[in-house]
Amino acid sequence: MNMRKIIILSGVALLTGCSLYKPYSRPDNIRTEALYGADYETEDSVTLASMPWRELFTDPCLQALIEQGLKNNTDLQSAYLRVQQAEVTLKTARLAYLPSFNLAPNGGVASFDQSKGAWSYSVPLVASWDLDIFARITNNKRQAKSLYEQSDDYRQAVQAGLIVSISTQYYTLLMLDQQLDIAQETAVQFKESVRVMKAMKNAGMANEVGVSQMEAAWYSVESSVEELNRSIKEVENSLSAVLAEVPGTIVRGTLDEQRFPTELSTGVPLQLLTRRPDVRAAEQTLIQAYYATNIARASLYPSITLGGIAGWTNSVGSAIINPGKLLLNATGSLAQPIFNGGYNRGRVKIAKAQQEQAELSFQQTLLNAGMEVNNALTQYQTAEAKQQWRSNQIASLDKALAQTELLMAHTSTTYLDVLTARQSLLQAEMSMATDRFEQIQAVINLYHALGGGAD
Question: Are β-strands 106-110 and 303-316 bridged in parallel, bridged antiparallel, or unpaired?
Fold first, then answer.
């Protein structure tokens, strides 16, 4: 087939396959509005996620731990390597636009009827260029670019998750520290109560049952102190592993020192598409599936290759001449699938189905992201309200304990009333520390749900 016919047929086929060049655009049916739910609709474009993590987490000890984690964490280092691999793949895909050149020197000797051998040689430079008439190379390159961007999204998701993990474990330590202080202080008070009860027993004002029950309460608190110490050590060890360090003591502040923004802005739901790396990664999967469909469709059309040879040779047909002469040759070929047309059409159907699956997965990822924002906002509001009620509870229990101790000293009120009041106060103070941690955890969850910490 001559070059003119190849060009004519290529032009006809190109008119039927021009849609293969169309770049990806987000489907119109992807829902991006009201993802936070009716209770948290907003038109404010400001979002907590735009705040750098150093401004949100102002504790110097925590900042040092996060910086150490970003430097040493093995999962994050693996994510960086994944990005590098995808970058090389993209560069390779771009090189496919260029013609290939191969130097293929060869030589030999021939003799006929015991005549003197004649040496022949050729030193050709062979060129081949695949014309991207039906965007097969273009779609491959776009797919590779999407894979690269998805790899970077994965790296950002690992980074954001790492910041969340470090900060969560850090604040867990602060909560446990505060609960340990409360338990140790209560243990001292119970120990003193045991001493007082024994003195009262010796004076005939209490019995052995009262002493035993007060001792049991003291032992219970001491047991909780040991349990809290164990929990603190386990969290320290877990945090050390995240930091790629051997187990050790974590330098930290206190729970009461922590400060966070009082206004938690969420921004518009559409920002999840640009800020959340997992949402972006889900869309990149859809983009790759879109271009995979285009690649499959391109297999239905002919492929066109231009080739040529340039070099030196002393072999001209059956004759051998010396010195060698310049060799030039140009070729063009068109390959149209015939017998495997059904197979190629099947590939298109499979790729299209996979594209539809990726679209559904992308939509679900967006819905899940909106749900996480809603949950974090609800968690914050609940924790804030619980802290107010808990403060009132502790104030009332403090007052009740003081009055019960006073009544015990001057009336017939028994030690059981004092014991019950003190145990209730201990539980309320422990719960107060948990409520404060839940409020901080809600801020962290909201920051992560909105896509913060990825930059």
Answer: unpaired
